[in-house]
Amino acid sequence: MAARRVSSLLSRSFSASSPFLFRSQGRNCYNGSRVVRRFGTSSKAEGIISPSVQVSYTQLLIDGNFVDAASGKTFPTLDPRTGEVIANVAEGDAEDINRAVKAARKAFDEGPWPKMTAYERSRIMLRFADLVEKHSEELAALETWDNGKTYQQAKTAEIPMVARLFRYYAGWADKIHGLTVPADGNYHVQTLHEPIGVAGQIIPWNFPLLMFAWKVGPALACGNTIVLKTAEQTPLTAFYVGKLFLEAGLPPGVLNIVSGFGPTAGASLASHMDVDKLAFTGSTDTGKVILGLAASSNLKPVTLELGGKSPFIVFEDADINKAVELAHFALFFNQGQCCCAGSRTFVHEKVYDEFVEKAKARALKRVVGDPFKKGIEQGPQIDSKQFEKVMRYIRSGVESNATLECGGGQIGNKGYFIQPTVFSNVKDDMLIAQDEIFGPVQSILKFSDVDEVIRRANETRYGLAAGVFTKSLDTANRVSRALKAGTVWVNCFDVFDAAIPFGGYKMSGNGREKGIYSLNNYLQVKAVVTALNNPAWI
Amino acid sequence: MASRRVSSLLSRSLMSSSSSLFSLRGKGHLVNRGVAQGYSNLASALEETITPPVKVQHNQLLINGKFVDSASGKTFPTLDPRTGEVIAQVAEGDVEDVNRAVVAARKAFDEGPWPRMTAYERSKILFRFADLIEKHNDEIAALETWDNGKPYEQSAKIEVPMLARVFRYYAGWADKIHGMTVPGDGSHHVQTLHEPIGVAGQIIPWNFPLIMLSWKLGPALACGNTVVLKTAEQTPLSALLVGRLLHEAGLPEGVVNIVSGFGPTAGAAIASHMDIDKVAFTGSTDVGKVILELASKSNLKAVTLELGGKSPFIVCEDADVDQAVELAHFALFFNQGQCCCAGSRTFVHERVYDEFVEKAKARAINRAVGDPFKSGIEQGPQVDSEQFEKILKYIRHGVDSGATLQAGGDRLGSKGYYIQPTVFSDVKDDMLIAKDEIFGPVQTILKFKDLDEVIARANNSRYGLAAGVFTQNLDTANRLMRALRVGSVWINCFDVFDATIPFGGYKMSGIGREKGIYSLSNYLQVKAVVTAIKNPAWL
């Protein structure tokens, strides 16, 4: 296995690499030429770190085999650091989805998957978690290469979380209980919680393997089979863990992975007549299309995890330094590419000026650079399209007269690096306070009392998450209930334990993932009522 | 109150009517000729259509606690299925009325009082409402029968009591909506709050107007939501009456708003409204798809759907045939065959097939059809001319496709929408009558040989709502119960609808479950609250 070589390669690669830290330049950094110069000075960075992993799997995983696309077509997946091609990957389309569904259908309808004991299923998932840990450096390197997120984040936070989630759901497999139910007459009533069948799952590019775990974990634990479509930006790691799943003993056809594009592979999955359930994570606009396709095809139930514009509320009694640090983390984590990013930072007027000054200082200190480099906090945005979109929103912020405290420009002229950007004096009606930017752009808004901030925080079509910073128990309790958001983090943010349900109010989505709540998404409830003769009790 | 008069009126009316025989009986295979004969014998009786012992008191929309005309001032007639004649003109709600109802519901939710009352207070209002339903039982039942055509005895003895029962069930849930505390992986206190979702839009059908109202309103109100409910245009009356009773019970204004009207106007306005947070719909699969599409194009409101069915009723060779015949008959013909879960594909094992068909036919011929207000009547008219024509088309289709017409096959009389209890044998899986939802008194009997075969055939449908299984064999029962891809399996019984039993569909029969504990989640949002903790004693 290539994997064994990887860890040594990886450590060498780290130690060998030259310093490659970008630091954004504060109020001057909207000046593009200066940024370029700055980038130029670290041009030892021609020595972009060579990822210590090889791409071993670029084909679709269907029925236990890696195969080319039916059309023979491929598409390039790019390195966000440079825009250069990492590998050409099989491009799945309707015919590949058909083949994958057929394999999944067979593995479900004829078995073996739902006919195995829950204990057997759980052991395969536990073995898979072990393999994820064993290959964690290789997986982390591949994830970073394809996505641009920092290697340290991938290695120390995300890959361990993938293993953790699979152990969590492996533990659920043999704890899916139905109920026995009191009847109004001589009947024995029970409910069976059955697997729903073939689940179609469409995952995004911002956390490729974590989203894989949120989707695949509960679906497999409940006994379903799967056709998973990866994002076209980040197809690589799913194939790798697909291989690990086969190694762990997953029968062929239970998990099929198709790389490809939304309008082709994604749409055919959403509208497929033999897919029994669909789970999608992505933008609200695409979520609407997905639900429309489910409605016009076979009414498969749909869970959606969509966009957000989550408020991060700092009250006057909050620990300001901690709030600054967490508000910074809430927005900039993962290059700002989080659906639950704390992207509306509401700060009480009494602490506003201090907060803005410190938030700016923190953003200026943010370390941007090659994500494989140690100590880097921020890598490039995922691709040119996202990069351009973020830059457009920054221009919109400037034009709408928000105060650009720092950042605002590209870093370097290669790849998709953006300076950590902070706007203050942001008003609710500015686009940057309304739309999901999905980039390293913090918008700071001022408020004066609780009623006002509750109303403004809720005035959005989104309702995914919120942060609340206060020492007051009453404020915390009141705001927790009043916010229309699926997750409220109080004096913390982005806590994503496996047991905590995640999902949106309003147009941030339908349903919950993680925790006990995610099981429902992958179960059908069957009521079984049997006539009783001469029952000892009812 | 008029209602006090009603029960005495009603008992008099029932007693006085009991002397004149008024049951139409289907005439078996002599169908066409026989029925015409039978009808002519009864023609004079049909002219003496029983006057319903109830007056229509409410024919306006119920918005923000008040009965009001529609914004347009328009009305539409609701018809008596026994005659096709107008019972009353009812306010016709449209987009503007839905908007007004949503404004009222939004206010009652966002500013209170409903979600800000204690759960105990909400439950007490629902309990008082259940008491009022019982008090007005006969009046409500008479209105339901008049508007829908179902037998009065079924309304008065089963459905209206079930209405009270379902509301007491959900009243009991109101103060038992628990969130969870959740183990964290670090120094965090994690809890989940199960919050009301907000303003629920609910669209109910005409086949069980009040029971569908209770399945929808009960859990929505127990969980603290406010509601805009659209009734079916065929049966707007009973909901308006119980809407008044809800307010008598102390429901604050704006919490439940009732809009009568049509699907493409009022219904579509609900499904696509940007200020409605959830929509629940019961009706046909085709309309269900439209509802879900409207939700997807508007604000992604969460949708639950209870849709069509073509439910298998499987009689194994070891079944008690007489009981199976009776229950298969009930499973199909109950409520004039107008049940989404009707046992509309009667699969009978080849060893008992001939006996079953003979007895099923005899039972159908025996079925008492007539004015639903008459005592002893088992079957009234279909709800309207559209359904009536559709069913007759399917019957002709059955004959044309070579199925054997054992009984029935035509209308009864020349007035209203009565149809003879109809039985087809030798039905094949590929006939339309074995595939489509007929929604009328047409039983289709199919033959099978072994379990593998019947499982495959029973599941070979786009629907997956319910199934009946008749067997004395434990292994057979257990095997079928797991293999059938349906939301309800009734074993040696059918149509058991206790409040606690979840109901809903696999496949294109719907999304989500109603009744029981499962229905609560349709009306709750889950909010995870995670709080950083310092120096925790345990994790």
From TrEMBL, chain A:
Molecular-function GO terms, alphabetical: aldehyde dehydrogenase (NAD+) activity
Supply the EC number(s).
Answer: 1.2.1.3
Q: What does this protein do?
A: Possesses activity on acetaldehyde and glycolaldehyde in vitro.
Q: Which PROSITE patterns match?
A: ALDEHYDE_DEHYDR_CYS, ALDEHYDE_DEHYDR_GLU
A Pfam family recorded for this sequence: Aldedh
Keywords, in A-Z order: NAD, Oxidoreductase
Gene Ontology CC terms: mitochondrial matrix
Protein location: Mitochondrion matrix
The Gene Ontology biological process annotation of the record reads:
carboxylic acid metabolic process
Q: What SUPFAM superfamilies does this protein's entry cite?
A: ALDH-like (SSF53720)
Q: Which InterPro entries match?
A: Ald_DH/histidinol_DH, Ald_DH_C, Ald_DH_CS_CYS, Ald_DH_CS_GLU, Ald_DH_N, Aldehyde_DH_dom
The record's section on Gene3D superfamilies has: Aldehyde Dehydrogenase, Chain A, domain 1, Aldehyde Dehydrogenase, Chain A, domain 2
Q: Which residues form the active site?
A: 305
Primary residence: mitochondrion
Q: Which residues form the Aldehyde dehydrogenase domain?
A: 66-528
Q: What class of enzyme is it?
A: oxidoreductase
Keyword 4Fe-4S recorded: no
Q: Does the keyword Plastid apply?
A: no
Q: Which protein are we looking at?
A: aldehyde dehydrogenase (NAD(+))
UniProtKB/TrEMBL annotation, chain B:
Presence of keyword Ligase: no
Q: What class of enzyme is it?
A: oxidoreductase
List residues of the Aldehyde dehydrogenase domain.
Answer: 67-529
List cellular component terms (GO). mitochondrial matrix
Q: Name one Pfam family in it.
A: Aldedh
Q: Where in this chain does the entry annotate a coiled-coil region?
A: none
One biological process term from GO is: carboxylic acid metabolic process
Q: Which reaction does it catalyse?
A: an aldehyde + NAD(+) + H2O = a carboxylate + NADH + 2 H(+)
Instruction: Give its localization.
Output: Mitochondrion matrix
The keyword DNA-binding is assigned to this record:
no
Report keywords, A-Z: NAD, Oxidoreductase
Q: What does this protein do?
A: Possesses activity on acetaldehyde and glycolaldehyde in vitro.
What protein family does this chain belong to?
Belongs to the aldehyde dehydrogenase family.
Name recorded for this polypeptide = aldehyde dehydrogenase (NAD(+))
**Natural source organism:** Brassica carinata (Ethiopian mustard)
